[in-house]
Structures are given as structure tokens and as C-alpha cells.
Amino acid sequence: MTEPVLRKVDAVTVPVPDLDSGLAFYRERLGHALVWRNDAVGQAGLRLPDSDTELVLTTEQTYAPNWLVGSVDEAAEAVRVAGGRIVSGPSDIPVGRVVVAADPFGNLLVLVDLSKGLYVTDEAGAVTGIA
């Protein structure tokens, strides 16, 4: 293998009971700026000021780092060949693809590619499309 599979931490997902209460805590009380909000998938992305990694509030997923990869399908195969296993996926998400894999030690690896682009938002942060 010539390139490492894991490129960077794309996001850290934090489960919340609903987006409004999550935003009340993380945005209004802790001061993190809203980057985007997608009610259709139960997620909102918040800015971490010293990084391009996002804090993603979620009503569906568990607490986990999301690793950016070049291609989810290739990364899943690399993890499998290296001795890991696929837990779920690969599957499509609005901005690309995702797979949950596990290393040989049982650690979950949420692998994400942004092959469809990034969210486009209006002035309030509501997702209006993908570019």
C-alpha cells in the first residue's frame, strides 16, 4: 500500500436527543458556530475553531470519530484484507458514502468519503443542496 487509508478526522459525531436541545447546548452555551443543519438525516454540523474537523450532532448515530478516506469501497476492502471486518455498509449518504468497519481489536472505524460533494446552505445553515 502506498497511501495511508485514513486521511484525517472528518467529524466527531455526538448523539443528542433532538437537534434543538443539542444546538442549545453546543451552539448557544458553548459557542460553536453552526455550519449546516439537515433535519432529514437528523444531523447538524458545528465548527471547531482550530480545525476543519466538524462536531456533528446526531439523533441517529453513536459517539464516534468519522475518518475521511479517498474511497469508502477501497478503504473497506483495505481494512478487510488487513484483518479487520465490515460491520455495516458501504452505503450512500447525502455527501458521499460511509462504511462502519472494525479493526482486529474491536475498535469501530466509521469511514466516510465526500464523493458527492459538500453541503450547500442558506444564511441560517439549512442545507439547500450539495456541490
From TrEMBL:
Keywords: Lyase. Gene3D superfamilies: 2,3-Dihydroxybiphenyl 1,2-Dioxygenase, domain 1. GO terms for molecular function: lyase activity. It holds the Pfam family Glyoxalase. SUPFAM superfamilies: Glyoxalase/Bleomycin resistance protein/Dihydroxybiphenyl dioxygenase (SSF54593). Residues 8-114 form the VOC domain. This is Enzyme related to lactoylglutathione lyase. The lineage of its organism: Bacteria, Bacillati, Actinomycetota, Actinomycetes, Propionibacteriales.
